[in-house]
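Give me the 3D structure for Phage integrase.
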Amino acid sequence: MKRHLAWYAEKGPEGLVFVGEKGAPFRRTSFGRKWRRARAVVGLPDGFRFYDLRHTGHTLSARSGATLKDTMVRAGQSSEKAALIYQHSDEERQREVAAGLDDLVRAERAKWHTDDPAHHSEEAAEG
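Predicted structure for Phage integrase (127 residues):
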C-alpha cells in the first residue's frame, strides 16, 4: 500500500488513492477493467467485488482488537449501524472466541481450586 501511495496516488491528505492514466479520477468503465485485471493478478475469485474490500477491512480491523469506534473512524463512518453492516464473523472466529472463553473459565476455576483461604471465604459468603 505504501508503494502504491508513493508511486501512483495523488499527493496530500485529500489526494485520490486511485488515479486514471491522465491524472483524473477513474471512470466507472475504466475502473472496472482495471479491477478485473488486478483481481486476476492476485488470484481473487471472479465474483469478488472491489466493494468487498470494505467488508474485509472492517472484519479484520475488529479481529485485530479495534473497537467499534476505531473501525468507524478508519472507514470514515458516523453511524454505528453502517459500521456493523460491514463486520462479519465466520466459523474460524467463533472457534477463537470459544477458545478464549474456555481459557478464561479454566483460569478462573484454577483459582478456586487453590488453597488460598481468600477464595474459600468468598465462596462461603456467596453460598
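The CA atoms of residues 5 and 13 lie 11 Å apart. Let me know if you want a second pass.
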